[in-house]
Write a structure and sequence with these properties.
It contains eight helices and eight strands. It has 310 residues and is α/β, with parallel strands linked by helices. Helix 7 links the parallel strand 7 and strand 8.
């Protein structure tokens, strides 16, 4: 058994990863032009009240937009441990500019400071707040979508599940981008097709033990909706786009959940992106552009379908 299976050790390592990732992102961005410089958006920081505590969020507004545009809530990745919403700045700018939506990019609570189920509960409260306070902020809460990358994709799925169970808010689309959706199965037991997979088994030890120390809780529907232990009827859940990566250790999670969503009549598309691994869009600008364009088109479609009559 790995020493990282010890909850205390995993938590200490997770805290160290938080600090190192913040410094690393700043150093990586120094002197480097951000991707998609042509995609402009007006950005402001807001604070969203939740029962877990205030959640900081960055609002990206299209520079030229129609009155009361649709709104998309985004959750960043980071193994439920790393806390830096700015890593998704290129995606948020792209979606605001190309899809014409307001993007609310959420800096949500992370482990080990806030363990499961705090992050998915807070994520749901943020989305509910976005829907309920739309008029005040100038977006259309009735044309609401959610999405996220990696852990953020898992949180978006959890938001859609809670919205189904609690009767709203209505979500027109959930976009799940290489999400971890089975925390019951350890990372070392998931197939990785690449020769040097981005997600290592030790990362699974850190993330899982820092986020959900009790293995029994990892079977919760908000943590592992792709595992057979969760067999509830998903009829009526928000329509979904699932994007997986051919070389990703988490590919099976997304594929299994896509099949489940298809059975519930909720799958819009499952796209398996060839030749790339987890988090490819942080360094493969060409493939990221194609994927982001696909997501933007899906957001435009649902916005048009639910647009109010003139």
């Amino acid at each position: 058994m790995s020493v990282l299976s010890n909850v205390h050790v995993a938590s200490v390592v997770a805290l160290g990863m938080q600090r190192l990732s913040t410094v690393g992102l700043r150093l990586a961005a120094r002197g480097k032009e951000a991707p998609f410089p042509e995609c402009r958006a007006d950005v402001e920081e807001i604070s969203v009240p939740t029962s877990i505590g205030p959640a900081r969020a960055f609002v990206y507004r299209p520079v030229d937009h129609a009155p009361s545009p649709p709104v998309h809530v985004n959750f960043h990745g980071g193994g439920f441990v790393m806390r830096d919403a700015t890593v998704d700045d290129p995606l948020c700018r792209y979606l605001a500019a190309e899809a014409g939506v307001v993007v609310v990019n959420v800096d949500y609570a992370v482990a080990p400071q806030h363990r499961f189920p705090a992050p998915p509960h807070q994520a749901y409260e943020v989305v509910r707040w976005v829907a309920e306070h739309a008029a005040t902020h100038g977006w259309d809460g009735s044309r609401l979508t959610v999405g996220g990358q990696s852990a953020g994709g898992a949180l978006a799925a959890a938001v859609a599940r809670q919205a189904l169970e609690q009767g709203g808010p209505a979500i027109a689309l959930q976009v799940l981008h290489y999400p971890p959706l089975d925390l019951v199965t350890h990372a070392r037991d998931k197939e990785a097709r690449g020769t040097n997979p981005m997600i290592k088994p030790w990362m699974g030890d850190v993330f899982d033990n820092a986020y959900i120390p009790d293995p029994a809780l990892r079977a919760d529907r908000l943590a592992s909706p792709a595992h057979p232990v969760d067999s509830a009827d998903l009829t009526g859940i928000a329509p979904a786009v699932v994007l997986t990566c051919e070389l990703d250790r988490l590919r099976g999670d997304g594929a299994a959940y896509a099949r489940r969503l298809r059975d519930a009549g909720a799958l819009v598309a499952h796209v398996d992106i060839p030749g790339v691994d987890h988090a490819y869009d942080t360094n493969d600008v060409g493939t990221a552009r194609r994927t982001y364009a696909f997501i933007a088109e899906r957001l435009r479609e649902v916005a048009q379908q639910s647009a109010p009559s003139a």
